[in-house]
Design brief:
1 helix, alpha+beta
Length: 89
């Protein structure tokens, strides 16, 4: 299954109960959306590193729900914290 980049540059990695998205501009962040009925903003973004086995979460940065507010919010969070993440690594 292949996926295309959306307008924010996120590519869907996995689909199912939780959809995961990765953006090559922000390699240390993974955006996700929970498929939960009745939840207005089931979005989140977590930090970690991508390797051959997949994405390894380190939870230096973790935002979900209203604070993330979808792919636009995830993109803004990743853009803001990617430089800080590199310094901390």
């Amino acid at each position: 299954m292949s996926f295309k980049k959306d307008k924010f540059g996120w590519v869907k990695l996995k689909s199912g109960q939780t959809n995961y998205y990765h953006n090559s501009k922000y390699p240390n962040f993974l955006c996700y959306r929970l498929n939960v009925p009745g939840v207005l903003y089931p979005w989140g973004i977590r930090s970690g590193k991508m390797d051959d086995a997949g994405f390894d979460f380190d939870d230096q940065y973790n935002v979900e729900g209203f604070a993330c507010a979808g792919k636009l919010g995830a993109t803004l969070h990743a853009k803001k914290y990617q430089p800080k993440y590199k310094e901390a690594a």
